[in-house]
Amino acid sequence: MKTLIAPIPSTFFFSLFLLSIFTSNLPSAAADVVTDRDGDAFSNGGTYHILPLFGVRDGGVELAATGNETCPLTVVQSRTSKIFRGLPVIISSPYRIAYINEGLILNLAFASPPSCAPTPPKWTVVKDLPEGQAVKLPGYSSTVSGWFKIEKSSLEYLYKVVFCARSSGTCGEVGIIVDDEGMSRLVLTEEEDDGIIVEFMKASSVGV
């Protein structure tokens, strides 16, 4: 008598796929905790200014309206001055942990976006744009599904912001290109080590 084996439902394999993505990005014992410019460990859900350094001008990151945007949806580096820290960014992980390690899946969202911005004002990556893959707020149909993470740079206590696409698993560093209007836009770089080096400052910190 033959024994019938029930087929495994496709939802089972999809669940395994999702589990593999999240478990592969869990903090490992070898991963260091990200620190801010004061040397303090990154709090999960903390609010920070992201400050690009070395070879790029001006201040922290903020929002600007580019192209046909009627609301500022494009993440840019501030042109105001080098002392302007930009808009504060909430950096959080979906995991229930107190501190953020390097390489962990992260959400980045502006803490005080303009009223016209979508809610929640999370950073996304949009493809098929003239500048390549750009960092923007939600609102575009060509948004790439994925997540951000913070990786250590070649310089001690300084970091790079990286975006990983969910479909391919490939990651690219966040860099800056300057458009024809002098706007410093955040984009994904095509070459390794072309991303900007950044430091993080607590939004409550005094000074620059």
TrEMBL record:
UniProt xrefs under SMART domains: STI
InterPro entries in the cross-refs: Kunitz_inhibitor_STI-like_sf, Prot_inh_Kunz-lg
Signal peptide bounds: 1-31
Molecular-function annotations in GO: endopeptidase inhibitor activity
Keyword Zinc: no
Protein name: Uncharacterized protein
One Pfam family matching this protein: Kunitz_legume
Keyword Disulfide bond tagged: yes
Classification via PANTHER family: KUNITZ TRYPSIN INHIBITOR 2, TRYPSIN INHIBITOR A
UniProt family annotation: Belongs to the protease inhibitor I3 (leguminous Kunitz-type inhibitor) family.
Keywords noted in UniProt: Disulfide bond, Signal
